[in-house]
Amino acid sequence: MKINEIAKKLNISTRAIRFYEEKGLISPEKQSENSYRIFNETDIWRLQTIISLREIGIPLEEIKKVLLNIEQEDKKEVEYYLNLQRASMYSRWVELKQQLDTIEQMIDKLKVRETLNLEDIFELANGSKRLNAIRKQWSDQWGFDKLAPTFDQQLLNLFPEMIQIEDYKLSLNAAVECISPKKEEIGLDIGVGTGNFASKFILKGVQMKGIDQSKEMLKQCEIKYPEIETKLGNFLAIPFSNGEFNFVISSFTYNHLLDEQKVLALDEVNRVLKPQGRICIIDFMYENKVPPRKDKQYTDRSELIKQLNHMGFITIYQQINEYIHLVYGVKKL
């Protein structure tokens, strides 16, 4: 097929086709006598794939990698790129939701006052901008992709002075007891890692899903527990729909967030929970406003409970040892 024919068939412009050729995404043959481009079945397939991937927002440089992996039948790498794009789109959706909330507040103020002054506009807009900036400040400071292959062996060595195997097991078992999962329920593990926490619920016959920002951690989880559905994602942009889960769990992940990010994270958890949904967070925490060690990241337990109560949760807590605390909450009707 010639370029005009393929453009008509795929409903794109000839200019777009030439652009993809310039970028090295396609390489149709050219007739020697007139240099007309001739597209074979492979070229058509590649163009269809490019159009589909562009439609979901994947950049051209990433499309090159995806095409190569598809042709090499590397399913895992293709899945990773699609996972990455889904996580990115959920992150943008959360930002868009924040902007929509800001517009709603502006409209509400306008209805009450019948006017909207510049100070109102600046205050609301800057608040929205600040929250989006807070979300983007998150980064993996631990290098979990590198840790993943030997993470289970190293887990207790990461904090030998703070967590022992007995306390680790006790905290996970205490969380299972608090959640009291039922077989028909669906749970989410945020920061699923290699699946150690989520597997406790699998043993109870519960359907578990997990998210993690580390591609390599998810690989290890899939090897160990293929029954756990995993996605790339984090506390600040959970790649699932509203009201999808009966409960959300997380162990030793929440403390990786900045204090301002923790409020946004709880909003996301609340969004994906069903009515009367439950949350259980195990982490390094402190009480009485004084962290037991200044060289580690901690969560203020009283502040976490305060935020959950403000969002309509009934909460309880359990202290496992000097450093490890468990906070459990149930959404009110």
Q: How does this model look, in words?
A:
This protein is α/β, with parallel strands linked by helices. The protein contains 13 helices and ten strands. A hairpin with a 6-residue loop joins strand 1 (29-30) and strand 2. The protein is globular.
List the helices and strands and how they pair.
Layout: H1 3-10, H2 14-22, E1 29-30, E2 37-38, H3 41-55, H4 60-71, H5 75-113, H6 118-136, H7 144-147, H8 151-158, H9 165-179, E3 186-190, H10 196-202, E4 207-212, H11 215-224, E5 229-232, E6 245-251, H12 259-272, E7 273-286, E8 299-300, H13 301-310, E9 313-319, E10 324-331
Helix pairs in contact: 4-5, 5-6
Beta-strand content estimate:
15-25%
Task: Give, in order, the helices and strands.
Answer: HHEEHHHHHHHEHEHEEHEEHEE
Q: Which structural class is indicated by helix and strand composition?
A: alpha/beta
Q: What is the number of helices?
A: 13
Main beta-sheet annotation? 8 strands, mixed
Helix content: 40-55%
Tell me the name of the CATH homologous superfamily of the largest domain. Vaccinia Virus protein VP39
Domain count, please report it: 3
Question: Can you tell me the overall shape?
Answer: globular
How much is the average pLDDT?
86
Radius of gyration from CA coordinates: 24 Å
